[in-house]
Amino acid sequence: MPTLTSSPELARRTRLAGLLYLVIILAGLGAEIGLRGPLIDLDDAAGTARAILAAPGRFRLAIAADLVMALCDAGVAILLYLVFRAVAPGLALSAMVFRLIQTVLIATSLMALLMAWLVLTRADPPTGAATLALAFLDLHAHGYDLGLVFFGVNSLMMGALVWRSGLFAPAFGVGLSVAGLVYLVGSGLRLFAPDWSAAFTPAYGLTILAETAFCLRLLFQRSPA
């Protein structure tokens, strides 16, 4: 079974992937939890509209952060393919494709956020604007979850690649595999059994832990002496 051998080029790619991964984590959590999330209540169209219109800069900054996240995600997909293709070329290529599909879906779903903003700021008369905007916000959330289905599959593949690489501790592979299962189950519940979704939400803490640990491991990859 092929394994990775550390080299200056591999170390550079690994560290760059780790840096972009860190930007993804910070931008993604910042946009969803710190910026946009507190403004949106999918059970209150009018209240959500008021909150967004009262903080336009914050809402648009969240969109910008998501765009940065998507751009970095494409870079990470390519870099991780270059790092792990020596382990299993077909599996590494498949992982890259699934991650890029996720990136495209998440980037495309940003159009729903922009439509919500346009509806709220340009509707004349404003009757029904809040309800329509909330529908676009809900569409964005579902688009995000659809993207995470593909990312869940990517995470399972990455877990196998990391486990087989010989360069990283197997625990990182296990962590990514667990994260992949959480994404698949969580998105499945959001899309097909939303009433059960809230109870599963704490499990996403495992994905943050696993991905942050792997990100830091990539970021601090040492070049061979």
TrEMBL record:
Keywords: Membrane, Transmembrane, Transmembrane helix. The chain crosses the membrane at residues 61-84, 96-120, 132-153, 165-186, 198-220. InterPro entries: DUF4386. The keyword Kinase does not apply. Pfam families: DUF4386. It comes from the Bacteria. This is DUF4386 domain-containing protein. It comes from Thetidibacter halocola.
